């Protein structure tokens, strides 16, 4: 599975939402001086995302967009709010998470722009290396399919467990084929994983929640799933998502343009202490990337 995962990472690679302010999901123009302002809502998760998006919102005003940043505390509600029209955009998830949501909930939310990319890291107050975990040690991981799956793949890369080669990019604990130390895998809400550091022998946490808890993957992590974020494929790049029929809205395009700037890159580095890096480039074709991921997942499921 290790080689397969590395290949997946090279081949493919814990987002943002805007909502209409008063008409159930359609952007609303409002006169402000001589300029028409598009009022939108964006859904984010955690304080790190909030700080970045509040900075984006301030700059979006110059493009005629009044951006209201809505903060959520979990990874479930922002996509549900986007799907039901309560939000125009959201910005909290990577491509694999978005694909999993669309598949499980029979939705068709679309990625419209890359935001940042994070490493996933293991942390511990009890051991200096995952090699030092004792028999029966407890490791906490996120309980959602994609982040939990990525955490298990990290543990496999570290040599702690082995996973069925047919499990794909989102394995579950049931896909563990070898667990020599009988490690106990505890699944928790992603936001609670870094908070359980004192109770578990190790945790594998999303960077945004780890940073919120005062941790930095490159300074505090005892194992990182990639030392070079540029080599992580598109599946773990975080994205801005919206409803399919709004992917070409001019106001939404303006928000993506405002986000994908050097100012935002600097803000990301500031609020994450360098833990996150920009994921966008001038040559992006995010629609093609999403289609390729979909085909890859379907191919894995057919085996």
Describe this structure as you would to a colleague.
- Belongs to the NlpA lipoprotein family.
- Its main location: membrane.
- Keywords: Lipoprotein, Membrane, Palmitate, Signal.
- This protein starts with a helix and ends with a helix.
- 34% of the residues lie in helices and 22% in strands.
- The N terminus is likely disordered.
- The protein is built from 10 helices and 14 strands.
- It is an alpha/beta fold and 303 residues long.
- The chain has 2 domains: 149 residues, Periplasmic binding protein-like II (D-Maltodextrin-Binding Protein, domain 2); 105 residues, Periplasmic binding protein-like II (D-Maltodextrin-Binding Protein, domain 2).
Query: Given this structure, which CATH class of the largest domain is correct?
Result: Alpha Beta
The share of residues in extended strands comes to 15-25%
What summary fits the major beta sheet? 5 strands, mixed
Architecture of the largest domain, according to CATH?
3-Layer(aba) Sandwich
Compressed to H and E, one letter per element, the order equals HEEHEHEHEEEHEEEEHHEEHHEH
* CATH fold-level label of the largest domain: D-Maltodextrin-Binding Protein, domain 2
Q: How many strands in all? A: 14
CATH homologous superfamily of the largest domain?
Periplasmic binding protein-like II
| Count of discrete alpha- or pi-helical segments spanning 4 or more residues | 10
